[in-house]
Design brief:
alpha/beta, eight-stranded mixed beta sheet
Length: about 325
């Protein structure tokens, strides 16, 4: 896989500093039952990296301090980590809001038959990958049969109350463009998703998040192979909006990899660009037990234009529309 970092590190980006930490985003491993074209983690069935019980305990110890309100669990397919349910249950027991970045098809993997019931019982917010409401587009990006499996999973979640008004069970969907282009307007696309999925399949959900594809890992390598890397970076830079800097996720979120190393965001994790403390040392999850990282500098480079281009992009969807 062609590494895009030598190209990205040469591109300057405005300096950023951290605010108070609100969200702990924990990548519990890169193993996944899918291998999606746009995946910036390059996850797949043959990835072996998994967060162990020792690091899980450190995550819970950090949460137990009571200063972080949200645990955002991601992967790979995070549910494949053997400690996933322990992490969820113990975090919920101390009052932390838990989000699961779910690929939907995981609900049909052997051994996960009771996953939807577990998530509903623990009142976990689900943010699920659904890159289009058309079968051909989804299967082209994520693999044949993924669309049908995703529809079945969404119906199963709806049956348990997810996305149903008044249930208290939040179900969000995530859209990624098919190629090197910016996402369309989030509000208009959300309306289309709700109308088509509702009329065609009887599916309901809460919000649609639009995310720009990052020029790193698997997607970045494809851009280079097709000779489209420079054009996509030019699009991101030309679409830069300074007002998006205030809402980028790295200001109040930090990412933890399967080893416990800290990164300013999930994308920096994939570039092996760790968060750096005031002593110029790479930070570890254990440092959050004793240190306040508010005010620390954020590691930036050319890929950061992916979060600040156009309407902006973050783990919570579009920045500008969210702000408005």
């Amino acid at each position: 896989m062609k590494d895009t970092w030598p190209l990205l590190e040469k591109i300057p980006f405005p300096a950023l500093a951290r605010r108070r930490l609100v969200t702990l985003q924990v990548n519990v491993g890169y193993r996944c039952n899918q291998s999606c074209v746009h995946c910036h983690v390059a996850a797949g069935p043959h990835r072996a990296e998994q967060m162990d019980a020792e690091v899980i305990d450190l995550v819970l110890a950090v949460l137990a301090r009571g200063r972080i309100s949200t645990l955002d669990i991601t992967g790979g397919a995070p549910e494949l980590n053997p400690h996933f349910r322990t992490l969820v249950s113990q975090a919920r027991a101390i009052g932390v809001h838990v989000m699961d970045r779910c690929n939907l098809t995981i609900l049909e993997v052997p051994g996960q038959e009771d996953l939807a019931d577990f998530l509903a019982r623990e009142q976990v917010e689900i943010t699920a990958s659904m890159p289009c409401y058309l079968e051909d587009n989804v299967d082209r990006q994520r693999g044949k049969g993924v669309f049908d499996a995703s529809i079945r999973a969404l119906k199963s979640l709806n049956a348990r109350g997810y996305g149903v008004e008044g249930s208290g069970l939040t179900l969000n969907l995530v859209y990624n463009p098919q190629g090197p282009s910016l996402p369309p307007g989030q509000s208009d696309l959300e309306s289309d998703y709700k109308r088509i999925l509702g009329e065609t399949y009887g599916i309901v959900f809460d919000r649609l998040y639009t995310l720009a594809n990052m020029p790193i890992q698997r997607f970045g390598a494809i851009l280079i192979a097709k000779g489209e890397f420079d054009r996509y970076l030019a699009l991101l830079r030309d679409s830069y909006r300074a007002e998006n800097l205030d809402g980028v996720m790295c200001r109040d979120l930090i990412s933890v990899d399967w080893r416990g190393v800290l990164y300013d965001c999930d994308f920096n994790q994939m570039l092996d660009l760790p968060a750096i403390g005031l002593d110029h040392r790479a930070l570890h999850i254990s440092d959050l037990l004793t240190s306040d990282i508010a005010g620390n500098s954020i590691q930036v480079a050319g890929h950061c234009y992916g979060c600040t281009a156009g309407q902006g992009s973050s783990c919570g969807g579009a920045l500008r529309e969210a702000a408005e």
